[in-house]
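Technical annex, item 7. During the second reporting period the consortium partners agreed on a shared format for inverse folding records so that results from different sites could be compared directly. Each record opens with the tokenized structure and is followed by the designed sequence. A conforming record, contributed by the partner at site C, is shown below for reference.
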């Protein structure tokens, strides 16, 4: 099932002579598809399904229970306890950005992303505020490790403060300088704190084995990590974007929109209707 069912390019024959029809020119007409239309369902689900909110509450409720257990277990820890949290789609909901891409028929770009984060307009993911307040009230520090760029720090910090999370110092924000992998930053945080819980929407928020891994290897590693989910690792839903999608393109984001469309269609597990 290649591009036959989902054509992005049509060849049309145009122009005729006065007496006898003959082909003068073959012109390639590109039918421009909206490059982000395929994510409409995902964005609508994040913005409008109560199930999305229930999953977020579920994640943060588990987190609060784990905080109780951990604090009871670790009476005199060698290092202060900390929770590591990703920011995007873990603490901040960026669905208006993705919705705006669809409405404007454009793809993600650093320029539009930076314009969005500069607006400081993202709402909190349901349950995040209460969880952070709960962890802090139990003496557990909160550290953000995010792949927002360091130059986005001030806007991100202000956005989060404006939404009521005003207890996390700027030095507890570990944003991206050069590398997307979070391993290095996790090590720095682990030198200072005993990291007891990690929250993220992308598996790379938990461990570097997931970085740039294939679809198959991501699933294998998830199976290996299975006992840790709901224990030390707590995942939030994000149907809009993430490495799950990058893996479909072999992390080659320079592919054309038509190629990516084809990659997605070819990745569908289907069966033959009526057979
Ligand atoms: Mg994220």
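Designed sequence (site C submission):
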């Amino acid at each position: 099932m290649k591009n036959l069912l989902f054509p992005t390019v049509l060849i049309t024959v145009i122009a005729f002579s006065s007496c006898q029809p003959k082909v003068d020119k073959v012109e390639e007409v590109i039918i421009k598809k909206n490059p982000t239309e395929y994510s409409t369902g995902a964005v609508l689900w994040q913005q409008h399904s109560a199930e999305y909110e229930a999953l977020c509450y579920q994640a943060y409720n588990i987190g609060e229970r784990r905080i109780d257990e951990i604090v009871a277990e670790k009476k005199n820890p060698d290092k202060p306890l900390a929770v590591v949290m990703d920011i995007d789609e873990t603490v901040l909901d960026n669905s208006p950005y993705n919705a705006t891409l669809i409405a404007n028929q454009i793809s993600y770009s650093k320029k539009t992303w930076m314009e969005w984060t500069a607006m400081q307009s993202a709402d909190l993911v349901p349950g995040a505020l209460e969880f952070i307040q709960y962890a802090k009230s139990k003496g557990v520090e909160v550290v953000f490790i995010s792949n927002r760029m360091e130059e986005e720090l001030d806007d991100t910090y202000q956005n989060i403060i404006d939404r009521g999370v005003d207890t996390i110092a700027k030095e507890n924000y570990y944003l991206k300088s050069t590398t997307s992998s979070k391993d290095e930053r996790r090590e720095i945080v682990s030198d200072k704190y005993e990291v007891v819980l990690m929250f993220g929407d992308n598996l790379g928020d938990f461990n570097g084995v997931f970085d740039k891994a294939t679809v198959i290897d991501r699933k294998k590693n998830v199976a290996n990590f299975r006992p840790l989910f709901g224990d030390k690792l707590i995942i939030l839903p994000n149907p809009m974007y993430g490495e799950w999608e990058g893996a479909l393109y072999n992390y080659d984001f320079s592919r054309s929109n038509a190629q990516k469309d084809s990659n997605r269609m070819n990745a569908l597990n289907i069966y033959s209707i009526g057979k």
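Strands lie at 9-14, 25-30, 81-85, 92-93, 123-124, 141-149, 173-176, 194-200, 233-235. The pocket of magnesium ion is lined by residues 86, 88-90, 200-202 (CB under 6 Å). All partners now use this format for quarterly exchanges.
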